[in-house]
Write a structure and sequence with these properties.
Distance between the termini: 27 Å
Helix content: 40-55%
CATH superfamily of the largest domain: Glycogen Phosphorylase B
Strand order of the largest sheet: 9-8-7-10-11-12
Radius of gyration: 22 Å
CATH class of the largest domain: Alpha Beta
Number of domains: 2
Shape: globular
Strand content: 15-25%
Structural class: alpha/beta
Number of strands: 12
Oligomer: single chain
Number of helices: 14
Largest sheet: 6 strands, parallel
Amino acid sequence: MSQLAPEPFRRLLGGPAPTPERIFFTSLWFRGHNNPRYAELLPRLERLDPYVFILPERRIARGIAYRAMRGTRYVRDPLLFAAAGRRYTSMFTTDNEQIRHFPGPIVSDVDDPRYTPREVALLNRPNLAAYVVTAERAARRFQELGVSKPFHVIPQGVSLRSVSPEAVSAVAELRARNGGGVVVGYMAAWLLSAGDRGGESPLYNVDHLLELWDEIHARNRHTRLWLIGGASERVRQRCAGRDDIAVFGRLPREQALAHVANFDIALYPRTRDQGIQAAKVAEYIGLGVPTVSYDFAVTENLRETGAGVLVQTPREFAETVARLAQEEDERRGLAEAARSAGAALDWDVLARRYEEEILDRYLSR
């Protein structure tokens, strides 16, 4: 993964002025864990000058620092953006609240739309040149709410350069030593259960996934479930002592992708449509892994690409995974479709599109 190279904040106060083609960007930045979209996209945008507040890696310290930074932004932001406005002519943002502070033209990436009156008003401000969404339906919803600005679609992607053949082979050897079988996998930042802090979030709760797994494994005893992500103690205890489940915990990004590349079948078992295109589905597609998901608008790219199977009910979900585990030819066809579609989802390709189609058009050099 490319690493973000932050600019020192003192550059906003003095020294040689940035050249006109440089674009201002500022955000909170987390050591070791960030929104996957921005962790991959931002370092690839060559015109960006990122001024980031780096927060601690440890969860408790990170939470305290995050709340402190959010609580003081209404004092800090006017000063920060006044200084930036004197040095830069344009800005890129991933936080729509910043739009009102910067005087020049702005492009905003809206990967988590809320569709509130406040967000609509910010996107309609005169200095917003264009906004970017991960799926066209998000922009159509904004248009229905009254947003009149130009929009572009840059979907979620996958960093194919982060997947080394050596790492994939090493995981394959580990898999073979542990008995092989058909590997069914799931990846998330956190793996939580009801009762855990944050366990009510459909983004991280795996209770339904584990219920599905019991049904899947009962139908096909040759399957193994791999879970990748920060697992709570409740989840670890629930999976303890089971030879059909491996909990790998949080892995470095490159290692996580190498494990995903060894999935035979990927799962996307969220039971509600969150309205946000899932980064992990793009990663499953890019790595050529057949995916089974509930049938939602956010997973329509599986239908469009032929890279997965969409289902309606928990019973159909379990039956489909168990069937795919037995049908190698069907899995192979889905995997080939996924790999074919995945080339266009490579972050190197998407970042080049972002620069040429959007930044160079609206934030002139």
